[in-house]
Amino acid sequence: MMKSYKLILPVLALGAFATSCDTDIETVQDQGDYVVKPVQVSELYYQNLREYKASDHEIAFGWFSKYGGASSMALRFAGLPDSIDLVSLWGGIPTNPIDIAEMRECQQKKGIKFQPVDICRINKADISKGYKQHWLEILEQNEAGTLTGADFEAAKHQVMVEMGLDNVDQVFLNDLDGFDIDFEPEGDPVQDAYFHTMFMEMAKYLGPNPEITKEERYALIEARYGAAVAQKAGSCDKVLCIDAYGQDPSNSTVMDPDNGKYAYADYINYFLSQSYHRMISRPRYPSSKVVHCVSIGEGWNVDPATGSTPQVGDYNTKQGLLYDYARWKPEGGKGGFGGFIMNDDYNVCSLNPYPYARFRDCIQICNPAIY
Question: Is the pTM of this model over 0.85?
Fold first, then answer.
């Protein structure tokens, strides 16, 4: 647990600007030549940080967006709090060399896990995707009367397998740490039985699947991506998450012969709950896997429901949804807390006296340091 990391945690509270003062917090970051030169800390600091990330603790999670090369530290991977655990790449998988280099340093030195995220809707999938082309082909065949009945149904499930594998490819081909399935079907076919097929294909490669051994998973990864990828540290331990606002795939009305309904609690690392206006009950998942998240971006300083009450929270009074979720202590433990477009918590205002002040504060609430 975090209490054993006495050398690192006083530094974690301030992260990248640990040596600065309140009136000059940005000058510690040198962006000359468009390359961030982080604060120099010892290798012991990074070792302790990685050991903390590998320990059993309540995680800090965020959807991160708007990164893109040389810009404010608010939009840089190097500007993230050192002690954040898991980040969903809401701005897409980075392509800029500066972003990639910073993300790799965060992975390798700080133990931060990064995962692509996708609202899994086949109707809105890019036409360049092979599975989308296949989907359109079988729809045309069905309309023409050449593919019907059980054969048409089997073909649709085959496309779901291909969609799942495409999601997994994004993880392994980009050396990322897992995948975040955003379940917001809004009428899209990828729900119920079709979602189940896609999800279970992904669960062969990602997440804590209880039905597959490490050896079986290693063989699958090696067969699809080669020995060099399979042999990388952590290749068999990549995370699988579901995020949702209201409806979630475990609400499926499609019957499963084993347990009556599709249930995914055993196959995911975390359920990232979009509890943007209130804590949403997630009875189909153990509290130890539920991460309640606020909306930090898109009206981050007020509650969209009222237009007045600070939704994220006030660093000075320690009140607000982010603080509520950090303090929440269910009997079975919790997964952690998080925020949507978390980079907006970098912004300084009367409620947030320095970059990520509230986020860092809540990390300490979840996992108090011992000085």
Answer: yes
